[in-house]
């Protein structure tokens, strides 16, 4: 059955893909182990129905949007904006997800089921938020999964100009802290993300990069999370398969 082009997981227009070309599976569950295994193999979940509803689809875009070391572009105007923001990490994960899932946003795809799944991954130490604050108020942010040297960015939002871009800068700062190679996945490149330095790579190149990245050690900022002590156990969970 043909599917519509996916809405942008970053709140932007990602309609450039031909229907169905990036969809590789339908079904399965959203248990932590299922999701982690999927990301390790270059897949991510998003519903095929209206506003991200069922059935659950598994996507592997070709080409893939990525941000690589040295590629981040910070414009002069963004540099000025950064002076007025404070970047925090993992202090308001639920609020960031709620901002990304705002039902008034165009192209929304984050369902209550997705919220529960990634909240569980956050509690286990796999999912993280990068938050933009101004005068004690959350004004933007992003969330995603950190698996080794891979950060799979799920969605971002902003309530003031440049707040989501500032969160991307904060994410790159976290990935760069220990000087090791890294890979940020944004699923689909858009013109907006391109202004930050996001490029496209082939699916084959992305899968090769992911295979290397997930074997690495977590960025130092997230190295003390429960992942090493608890979350690896979840990978023993079994899903119901994709068809």
From TrEMBL:
One of its GO terms (molecular function) is leucyl-tRNA--protein transferase activity. Its EC number is 2.3.2.6. InterPro entries: Acyl_CoA_acyltransferase, Leu/Phe-tRNA_Trfase, Leu/Phe-tRNA_Trfase_C, Leu/Phe-tRNA_Trfase_N. Pfam families: Leu_Phe_trans. GO terms for cellular component: cytoplasm. It catalyses: N-terminal L-lysyl-[protein] + L-leucyl-tRNA(Leu) = N-terminal L-leucyl-L-lysyl-[protein] + tRNA(Leu) + H(+); L-phenylalanyl-tRNA(Phe) + an N-terminal L-alpha-aminoacyl-[protein] = an N-terminal L-phenylalanyl-L-alpha-aminoacyl-[protein] + tRNA(Phe); N-terminal L-arginyl-[protein] + L-leucyl-tRNA(Leu) = N-terminal L-leucyl-L-arginyl-[protein] + tRNA(Leu) + H(+). Signal peptide: none annotated. Belongs to the L/F-transferase family. HAMAP family: Leu_Phe_trans. This is Leucyl/phenylalanyl-tRNA--protein transferase. The gene is aat.
